[in-house]
Amino acid sequence: MDGTYPATGLRVISLLPAMRRTSPMEAFWITGILTFLLGASIGSFLNVVIYRLPQGESLVSPPSHCYSCGARLTFIDLIPVFSYLILRGRCRHCGARFSARYMVVEAVTGVLAVVCWQMHGFTPYAAGLFAACAALLVTFFVDMEHMIIPDQCSVAVALFGIGVNIYHLWTQGLDQALAFTQQIGPDVLTIYLPHSIVGLLMGGGVFLFIGWLFETLLRKPALGMGDVKLAGAMGAVLGPGYALFSYFLLSILIGAAVSILLLALRIKQRGDYIPFGPMMALAGIVMLLYPEPTTLWLLSWYR
User: Fold this and answer.
1) Residue 211 near residue 199 (C-beta atoms within 8 A)
2) How many angstroms separate the first and last alpha carbons of the chain?
3) With contact defined as beta carbons under 8 Å apart, do 291 and 238 qualify?
């Protein structure tokens, strides 16, 4: 309601009537834009993680600054996406050029936030899903630039999978566990194991075997332990079964497509090492967001 503030005589106009007149479509767009900006802001922090984590630096100190001139970055320099566009990708103080990766990470993280909200609303599951996707996004760029997969990212993904599995076990009972039955003498014994733990062991075990096999045949390392840990983490999320198989298949398809493209563009030569972690991370994001459609699409090739 409109009214007059008694102490000052100033007329106060309530915003509630205007908010009530907001249509569902307008509310949808406003919420989407705010969610994107929140996600992009988190993406700005992910850029810090991508740069500092491989070098063992603190993620909080010193504050954000230009790595060329050392000038501390202020609010105008740190507006997600827009600062990069406004400043044309350069430092406002010394003119040094920033990598386009900073804007790309912010934009992609904003889109991931919107997708998670759109699919699952503002729920704890959506927050966990977004965190797992963010960890995979960090994995993508760190492995691309440094050829290492941070253990922290794989742990974050695995914890998401284990947490979701524990919640399902708590609310739905042993239907969310794998039952192993064996007859020992006159007794039939059954043991129940969580999907996430079996998937973690299966995912990591399969990649460990593949890495050993290729190293034996090719006489050179093919997969690093970072790849094995990430495969195990995705196994914890997807569980043992067709989804995990589809994840492996999608990683290989992405890897093959990227390798052919890099060779065709002469960015890489035959025999050059191409990190597999980014392919696994990209496939992981797809499988986290769209597990059933992706699995059905890939398995349809074998029908």
Assistant:
1) no
2) 64
3) yes
